[in-house]
Amino acid sequence: MTFTHHLSLMHGWVPTSVQVITAVVLIAAIGWRTRRWALMWLPLAAAVGGILVAGTNWYIESEGLAGNPAPRSLWVWIALSGVAIVVLLAGWRGSRWWRRGTAVMAVPMTLLCTALALNLWVGYFPWVQTAWNQLTAGPLPDQTDQVTVAAMQRQGTIPAKGRVVPVEIPNTASGFRHRGEYVYLPPAWFASNPAPQLPTVMMIGGEFNTPADWMRAGNVVKTLDDFAAAHHGYAPVLVFVDPGGTFNNDTECVNGKRGNSADHLTKDVVPYMNTHYGVKPAAAGWGIVGWSMGGTCAVDLAVMHPELFSAFVDIAGDIGPNSGTKAQTIDRLFGGNAAAWDAFDPSTVINRHGQYDQTAGWFDVNDTSTAGKPASRANDQAKAANALCALGSKHGIACAVVTHQGTHDWPFASHAFNAALPWLAGVLDTPQVPPIGLPQSSPSAAYIQTAAK
User: Fold this and answer.
1) If both were cysteines, with which of 26, 216, 311, 357 could 106 make a disulfide (CB 3.0 to 4.6 Å apart)?
2) What are the TM regions of this chain, as residue ranges (predicted)?
3) Within a 10 A sphere around the Cβ of 362, how many other Cβ atoms?
């Protein structure tokens, strides 16, 4: 593990230093010019910054991209980015070379600080190395190729750690255009040829995602390797799916205007894994884990398809598919078809289905309260978890709502997965993994900060 693996982009000296240096550069770029220049251009710069803030906030709200408030630093740096652009353009003529240089530097530096503030909100890049690997498409932990995996299995070579394999899953049933996906194979998968029938977990990320996010930002490969090492090489097989097709296509894992995502996950991915990797084909051997939007997907697909999935982990998901208000969601996802919305609304699906006989779920929500300072209000994510678990319990779904300290970001999602994995692996009957019961629902689950998708 290199030095950059320990450099946090969420807190500590790296983001603070970048922001301080940027502030100094911006101040130097503005400097003191003529009184006329200051009276004319600085108010315009402030106005441009304010317009950028208002426009960004309008876009986020109108598209239903987030529920939790953005950090103040995000709005500050968006505004200062506008200021830096105006200072560069308005102050270029007649400025000395060094001031022009600082003005040029101030623009990308303020944009970088905006990106750091945005990352503080969503936690997409917890570490410097995570960002570098994602931006440069660096190799994933334990990554290899299918040819090597097949050769290892034929030769009986059991690796000390699992292997991550890129896969191209045909979209024959769905017609959904998707990116390349990934499969994690635990060491025990290599123990025989054909492979032992292991359970499978479908992994779904957030609204803005790549199929590799759980491995890069969520650090899930290390979690799985450690788990397998503690259980004689056994862990579930994981398939990291693409629910969106592009980074910002918010499908909410439904079939609709933005593509037949649900069909891809249930009719393309599940049969492919059963056929190509010899996993347990029955629902008792299949689970789903999702974070944020993916959490909504997890509970939705599990209650819609008990014939395919028997367990789910919903990490900070919504009450149902969400792309704004209910009316906006019906329009954006389903082209105004309210019946289609009903078909993918978990509460409606549960009530229509009746009793479930082999479905279990773990709802995980984040608690932002600190000692002596409880979270200010109950919110949508907490209400969703408690409402869905209560409704599910009445219909035979064993479930619990679990609270963990943290904010709505990838480090929290990683921690939640780590906590749920022993239960999930056990309930899916993973060899060498003893089944354990669901934890007691957290009494503080109602005091949770609402989640960005």
Assistant:
1) 26
2) 12-32, 39-60, 72-92, 104-127
3) 29
Nearest CA-CA partner of 261 in 272, 246, 271, 274: 246
Buried b / exposed e over 320-351, threshold 16 CB at 10 Å, is bbbbbeeeebbbbbbeeeeebbebbbbbebbe
Share of residues in the chain with pLDDT > 90 (%) = 69
Query: Within its chain, how far is the Cα of 413 from the centroid?
Result: 8
pLDDT by residue (tens digit) across 409-444?
A: 888 899 999 999 999 999 999 999 999 999 986 654
What structural domains and CATH numbers belong to the chain?
Answer: 3-128 (no CATH), 139-446 (3.40.50.1820)
Query: 125, 116 in Cβ contact below 8 A?
Result: no
Q: Point out which residues pair with 204 in neighbouring strands.
A: 290
**113 neighbors 22 (Cβ within 8 angstroms):** yes
Q: Between β-strands 163-167 and 181-185, what pairing exists: parallel, antiparallel or unpaired?
A: antiparallel
3-class DSSP state of 20: helix
Which residues are 334's β-sheet partners?
Answer: none
Whole-angstrom Cα distance, residue 183 to residue 160? 17
Burial class (CB in 10 A: 0-12, 13-18, 19+), 250: buried
pLDDT confidence of residue 80: 96
Residue 154 CB partners (closer than 8 Å, separation 6+) = 193
* Tokens describing residue 8: 């946090």
Residues with pLDDT less than 70, the chain: 1-6, 63-68, 368-379, 441-453
pLDDT of residue 371: 53
CA distances to 80, 111, 190, 216 from 53, rounded to whole Å, are 10, 13, 53, 30
- Please give the backbone phi and psi of residue 203, each rounded to the nearest 5 degrees, phi first: -110, 125
- State pTM to two decimals: 0.85
The answer to whether 445 and 386 are in contact (CB under 8 A) is yes
Nearest C-alpha neighbor of 261 from the set 271, 273, 272, 249: 249
pLDDT at residue 378, rounded to an integer:
54
How far apart are the C-alpha atoms of 415 and 218, rounded to whole Å?
8
Q: For the chain, what percentages of helix, strand and coil (3-state, to nearest 5) are there?
A: 50, 10, 40
3-state secondary structure of 218: coil
Quote the distance between the C-alpha of residue 168 and its chain's center. 21
3-state secondary structure of 370: strand
Phi, psi of 5 (to 5 degrees): -70, -20
- Residue 57 zone, left/alpha/beta (φ > 0; ψ -120 to 50; rest): alpha
Amino acid occupying residue 41 = W
